Amino acid sequence: MDDIDGPAGGERPVPDGATGRPRDRSRREPSPRWNPHVVVLVVGGFALIAMGVRLYRSALDVVYSDFTSRGTHGLSDVEDGDAARDLVAMQVEWTVGPLLIAFGILSVLVGVTVLAVRFRRGASR
């Protein structure tokens, strides 16, 4: 039964590299609440939101400035190629912009939730 508790004398074996000395505090360790990956997630989320808003506004500019000024919805100048590129770019921006905004909001919410859970867990200790 004494073998279950460890070696005689109540001492437990120390794993390699583990000592009884306190850690060297000269090297600054990041706070456990501020994980750099979570910070990048939140900053990246804001960047996605900004890019999505910019793409969506660009698509709206093409719709309301180009098409209404020509009066034919831009289809009369398809031969020169610029109107066709404008139409394709507008459709891509119209589709991708809201997706980037949604993914940006989602990543900001995930980052803030992770920080809130860590803060809550740290406050209860």
From TrEMBL:
Instruction: Report biased composition (Basic and acidic residues) as residue ranges.
Output: 21-31
The residues that cross the membrane are 34-56, 96-117
Q: Which domain of life is it from?
A: Bacteria
According to the record, the residues making up region (Disordered) are 1-32
User: Which keywords describe this protein according to UniProt?
Assistant: Membrane, Transmembrane, Transmembrane helix
Q: Per the record's keyword annotation, is Transmembrane included, yes or no?
A: yes
Question: Keyword Membrane on this protein?
Answer: yes
Protein name (Swiss-Prot/TrEMBL): Uncharacterized protein
UniProt organism field: Labedella phragmitis
Q: Where is the organism placed in the taxonomic lineage, from the top?
A: Bacteria, Bacillati, Actinomycetota, Actinomycetes, Micrococcales
